Amino acid sequence: MLQIERYIRAETPAQAYELCRKKSNVILGGMLWLKQQNRRVSTAVDLCGLGLDKIEETEDSIRIGAMVSLRDMETHPALNALCGSAIADSLCRIVGVQFRNLATVGGSVFGRFGFSDVLTVLMALDAQVVLYNGGTIPLTQFAAMKPERDVLLYILIPKTPVQAVYLSQRITATDFPVLNLAISRREGELRCVIGARPLRAVSFGDDKQLLGEHITEESARAYAEDIASRIILAGNRRAGEAYRRDLCRVLVRRGLLALEDK
Q1: Furthest-apart CA pair in the chain: how many Å?
Q2: CA 13 to chain centroid
Q3: Cα separation of 221 and 228, whole Å?
Q4: Using only C-alpha atoms, what is the Rg of the chain?
C-alpha cells in the first residue's frame, strides 16, 4: 500500500525541484502506477499548479506540458496534423480512455519504462525534453541516461514536416506491447525506434543505406533483417527473445512499407 506522509502542491518549478531531490519524496503525476507500489513517501509533490497541462504551438515546435494527459495528446489536432495518426495509434490501446484521461505524458517519458508506447513514438519524432535542472536535451539521449532527481517540464516536437508510422504487437488489445515500433522520415532522414524489447526503446538510422530513395519490398526486408540481427532483445513472461526477434523482422518490414505509402 502507498503511504504518503505529507502533500505539497508546488508553486514553482524551483520548489518542485528542491523537494524532489530528497529520495524519499516523489512527484505525483496521474497516480496510476505510483499508487500500486508498496512504499512510504515522505512528501508527495503535485505539479498541477504549474500550468504544465497544456499543448502549445510555437514557431518551430509543439510544446507538450508534462501534466498533459495521454488522451489530450491522442486527440490534439496539431499533433495529428503533424504526423498523421502515429501518435494516436501509439496511445489508443493503452488500457482504456478512462486510464488515458488520467495518465500523464510526463510520467510516461520520465519513467522511461521499457513497455512505453509513448517513449517509442516520441523518440521517432525527434522530440526533446526540457528538464528544470538538466535543460533541453534530445529524448534519445535522455532515454539512455540513468535515473536522476530532476523535474520534467515539457516535451518539444519539431514542427518540420514528417512522415511517421507506429505499430505494435500485443497479446490482447489493451495489454502492454510485446514489441513496439515507430518509424519516421523527416527531410530524407529515416529513424526507426523499437521498444518493449522488453528494455527501453532504442533508435536506428539507415547508416548502411539499405533503403535508397524509395522503399521497396526487397529493401524493406533487407533493412529489417539487418536491424533484427543487431538489436539487443530479451525475454520475459510475455514473450521470449527469439519470438521478439521474429516480430522485429515483421514489424520493421511492415512499418517501412506503410511509411512508403504515406
Answers
A1: 60
A2: 23
A3: 10
A4: 19
Residues 185 and 192: beta-carbon distance below 8 Å: no
Mean pLDDT of the chain: 93
Q: 131 with 137: CB under 8 angstroms?
A: yes
Helix (H) or strand (E) holding 196: none
Per residue in 195-206, pLDDT (tens digit) is: 999 999 999 999
Question: pLDDT per residue over 104-132, tens digit each?
Answer: 999 999 989 999 999 999 999 999 999 99
Number of H helices, E strands in the chain: 10, 12
Phi/psi of residue 199, nearest 5 degrees: -85, 180
pTM given for the model: 0.93
Tell me if 152 sits within 8 A of 66, measured CB to CB: yes
If residue 152 lies in a helix (H) or strand (E), which one and from where to where? strand 152-158
Beta strand 177-186 with 189-195 is antiparallel
Q: How far apart are CA 136 and CA 125, in angstroms?
A: 16
**d(Cα 139, Cα 177) in Å, to the nearest integer?**
20
C-alpha cell at 40: 512510504
In degrees rounded to 5, what are phi and psi of residue 177? -70, 145
